Amino acid sequence: MLVRVALSYTRHVPRTARRFIEFSTLLTAISLLGLMMYVHVMFGKADSTCLTHLVDTWPRDGVLRVEVINNLDKFNAYQEKIAGKYFQK
């Protein structure tokens, strides 16, 4: 099917239009690659200081588990619901 589409594209689209489409696609791909490389480098240089207030209190052995929660109120309500359901006396 892909070969059929490619042959139809070659037959029905004029050569100058094909060159324009393919060149603009190439420029878009190269610019997006450059943007991804820039973002990668900038995030690598950025200092991550979101946990500096916990440095003195976290455990020194084992694994530190960090969860990113978008809606803390909703998460806490869910945790209380689960705790009430399973740890009820």
TrEMBL record:
It comes from the Eukaryota. GO terms for cellular component: endoplasmic reticulum. Coiled coil: none annotated. Keywords: Membrane, Transmembrane, Transmembrane helix. One of its GO terms (biological process) is positive regulation of ERAD pathway. InterPro entries: Membralin. The chain crosses the membrane at residues 20-43. The keyword Transmembrane helix applies. The keyword Transmembrane applies. This is ABC transporter permease. The lineage of its organism: Eukaryota, Metazoa, Ecdysozoa, Nematoda, Chromadorea.
